[in-house]
Amino acid sequence: SKLTNLGHLEMTWRSRVHLHPLLVRILHKSRLRYYGKPEKTMDMPYQAYFEVADGSGMMSMVLWSSLCPEWYNSMKVGTVLLLEKYTIKDSYPFKTQPTPGDSQMKRFATIEISLNVRNPPTKISIIPEEMVKPEWGLPEVKYRFITRSELDNLPHNYSCDVIGLVTFVGRAERARKRDHCEDFWLYRWAHTSDETSDQPFILELFASSQPDVFERIHPMTYLVCTQMRVVRDLSENPSSPIYLTPSNESQIFITGWHKGQPYTKDTKVKNFIQCMKLQSEADQIKKTLIGGYYPFPRPPNSFSDY
């Protein structure tokens, strides 16, 4: 069928009655958002953002309502989609923006693709990777993997991807989403290590839309976390440890979930796996811990400092 691209769509969408199909690859995927309220009666008050791209650039795509439970788990980073009967809207100005792995990619930020179950009913087709043709010009998924030795030199709020061997995983804890509300985040702390430093990555991980992966994090698994943000507070305490926290577009993967993921082609991921194969498993197991109370960031040493 006759296709259009994102760049052409941005220039012509207001003047078009019928929008041609789009062929795009998913580069980023947000957590699933529930926006239901007691006073409103909606069957499926769910929403999820994706960043999709073709040869012309990258644009946000929004999955709405009952399409979320039907499609959210099938739409992975790297998945190629054929979209028909979608709508175009002015973009929501306050949404989070992931950091693209390819800094040269053009971003179309003024509009977004909207996929709905009606008005009109969107048709979504997933194209298997083996059927994707090079002449379609779809970009590959690119990452910003860092090693532990590189972390100390990175600024606050820097966006990065990490891979490491889990050496510690804390118990699951809850934190209120907002003061005086009854909604909670479920989170846990984890340590991962690589061969570049004696210090671990300290990771704050939330269950969000991946409770199955979150519950299975345990020592001696390879853990990949994407779109993490560096947290460092040098103003109050220069010696305070640096840790990584998720963004709205973060994804976590453990052993058993890695097969077929685009990051398996990344050079730093390949180097890490190669180095781990040379390590003694018995020595690694001696360094692992699980559970217990883990207060972090740690309070000052004395009460007067606190």
UniProtKB/TrEMBL annotation:
<dbReference type="GO" id="GO:0003697">
    <property type="term" value="F:single-stranded DNA binding"/>
</dbReference>
<dbReference type="InterPro" id="IPR012340">
    <property type="entry name" value="NA-bd_OB-fold"/>
</dbReference>
<dbReference type="InterPro" id="IPR040893">
    <property type="entry name" value="RADX"/>
</dbReference>
<dbReference type="Pfam" id="PF17659">
    <property type="entry name" value="RADX"/>
</dbReference>
<protein>
    <submittedName>
        <fullName>RADX protein</fullName>
    </submittedName>
</protein>
